[in-house]
Specification:
By secondary structure, this protein is mostly helical. The chain has one domain. Helix content is about 55%, strand content about 0%. It contains six helices and no strands. Helix 1 crosses helix 3 and helix 4 crosses helix 5.
Length: about 130
Amino acid sequence: MESKILSKSAAKGLTRIGDILIPGDDKFPSFSAYMCMEHIDDLISYAPEDDINDLGMVLSILSVSPKSMLVWLVKKMAKAHKNHGPAGTLLRQLNMGIRGIVFSLYYSEKPGANYTGKNPDEMIGFTLNKVLQ
């Protein structure tokens, strides 16, 4: 399924970053292997249009960036709390926004239609209990 909100290049950029943040191993699927990008529209459909356009532009740039640059960017984003200048602010926003999207998709219990393995939530023993009053 293709996104109706993000361009193909933006979706590719998010998938590339997702695979750096969640590369997978012999137990857990990588971000792309879990195929959760099928649900990106559910996650971002209520975001303001300007935010979606800005996100799409950044992700499109990341879709054609060398992997070494993406790895460097992810490391810089993770350490942005130590940078108190304007670049630190931008890196913190990217870190929160991109990580938020990637991890929300991955742990949403919504794999892609063709995914056949266990959900990551099941593998870590996480269950969400809804308390009704």
